[in-house]
From TrEMBL:
One of its GO terms (molecular function) is oxidoreductase activity. It is found in: Membrane. It comes from Labrus bergylta (ballan wrasse). This is Plasmanylethanolamine desaturase 1. It comes from the Eukaryota.
Length: 261
């Protein structure tokens, strides 16, 4: 059933996907030492701030009933954000864009023609970019814990629960996505979370990997994929953008999929 992830259509006859795909090899070689350094810094900073904020949130726990709805709202926001960013990078832009294209669009193109490459990425490459995104809000939260009065922190507590759940799930999105592509050697607790649909389940994410990759973009919990598909959310957004800009959705993605030499 792994064959269902193969892109259909043009490019037939040559290597259709996987690390030997000509496009995949070219994209893998564009991963640079500077990019690696940015990812290392991001991961270290981000995880230090997460630990710091977690301890401070715990120490306030006795002040406030733990706000479950804030947590759920934070997780839903993270899932939607993952869908929006993933949809944006899959559908628009190009690897040829200066700086941005090579650093942030390249991984999305690589992922469609070589979906298992992500399972060979180590912790730093998997999580570096998302850590970079959450450093500033986490640092802001840490700064507030250090400078605000207990009364002010008490007031902000539900908001901080929301922001913390959002930051945690945004940070872990790529790790969760990587697990959804891993079929061997996953820890028992990870498959348990997948089976309970607390994180993106493997079968659920396979729906996105059917060419031309036009639905099920949310990759954190995947909770919003079904409702957004029912609403035709991504389709409508694409029609709107195409009517305004004249750009064709997924033009660059299709170009890489068709590369044979
Ligand atoms: Zn995709
Ligand atoms: Zn995927």
């Amino acid at each position: 059933r792994a064959g269902s992830e193969q892109p259909q259509g043009p490019g037939r006859g040559a290597v259709r996907w996987g690390p030997q795909h000509a496009g995949a090899r070219e994209l893998a070689n564009l991963y640079s030492p500077g990019k690696r350094c940015q990812e290392w810094l991001s991961v270290i900073l981000c995880f230090s701030l997460m630990a710091f904020n977690f301890i401070h949130l715990l120490s306030c726990l006795f002040l406030h009933f733990f706000s479950l709805s804030s947590l759920v709202a934070g997780i839903l926001t993270a899932d939607f954000a993952s869908g929006l960013v993933h949809w944006g990078a899959d559908t628009w832009g190009s690897v040829d864009l200066p700086v941005f294209g090579k650093a942030f669009i390249r991984p999305f193109r690589e992922h469609h023609i070589d979906p298992t490459a992500i399972t060979r990425h180590d912790f730093i490459e998997t999580n570096g970019d998302n850590c970079m995104l959450t450093i500033v809000p986490l640092a802001n939260m840490a700064f507030n814990f250090l400078t605000l009065s207990p009364a002010e922190i008490y007031q902000l507590y539900p908001l901080y629960c929301y922001l913390f759940a959002l930051a945690i799930f945004v940070t872990l999105t790529n790790q969760i996505h990587k697990w959804s592509h891993t079929y061997f050697g996953l820890p028992r607790w990870v498959t348990f979370l997948q089976d309970c649909h607390i994180i993106l389940p493997r079968k659920h994410h396979r729906i996105h990997h059917v060419s031309p990759h036009e639905t099920y973009f949310c990759i954190t919990t995947g909770w919003l994929n079904y409702p957004l598909e029912k609403l035709g959310f991504w389709r409508n957004l694409e029609d709107l953008i195409q009517s305004v800009t004249g750009e064709k959705p997924r033009a660059d993605d299709l170009k890489w999929a068709q590369k044979v030499k």
